[in-house]
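hey so i finally got around to running the thing on that chain from the lab meeting. sorry it took forever, my laptop kept dying and i had to restart like 3 times. anyway pasting the input first so we r on the same page abt which one it is
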Amino acid sequence: MLVVDSSVWIDFFRDAPTPSVNALTELLHSAKSDIVVPDLVLYEVLRGFRHEREYRAAKKLMEGFEVEAAFDPELAVEAANHYRAMVSRGFTIRSAIDVMIGTFCIERGYALLHNDRDFDTMHELRGLKVHA
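ok and heres what got predicted. didnt touch it at all, straight out
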């Protein structure tokens, strides 16, 4: 299973020419794409749309995949542990939500397609699987 981070979805909806967007585009055209959308990613992406038509189109596309609740108290504690471990090693983490999404992926064994350096740190230090 694969989670596509909001950093990639946002670039995708903006038609940004990035390697991550190219990978997502390939996945969307693939007959077998096991994309999971955490509710936190759904929130981060949909909150940015100003025009109703674009919002509805993005919502329809993303809800066409399996949407999963990303958090519970145990994952919150585990995310805090990941955050504290990375900060104690001298890394600055810019987004608490990224740590939550990364923890969601680690705990469920999902890979992550992203375009965000916070996840590079989680990959290196915490074992987050990333989409190659």
